[in-house]
Here is the input.
Amino acid sequence: MATREKQKAIFRKSERELEVAKASLRNLKTSARKARVLANMIRGQTVSEAYAALAFQTRFAAEPLRNLLKSAASTAVSRGFDADNLVVEEIQVHKGPIAKRFMPRAQGRATPIRKQSTHIDVRLSTRDSE
Here is the structure.
């Protein structure tokens, strides 16, 4: 049993050594559904194209996503990879914790308010030069 766990740990370590860069953003104060629109837009693009596309978006999640891409790209550059060949290989948007509040309404009633948050993970890879 212990040898299987060790094999899995060695496999995970080798996978981490092969990946170029990854970055994560936790507890962004917007819903996952709104952030996924932008994530789907930049998936598969080069980092420079994705950064330019996000620069012209007016959605709230565009600026934090740009900062996340910038962070992942700087991590890749510090590891010795070329910034021009970086591609957004994988970007995942997950639901974060929901803060539950109540708003007073007429005749003594209360309406629930759900303040949603989002977790975003991005992984970069290098584009193969043809």
About this structure: The radius of gyration is 19 Å. Residues 2-18 form the longest helix (17 residues). The longest strand covers residues 86-95.
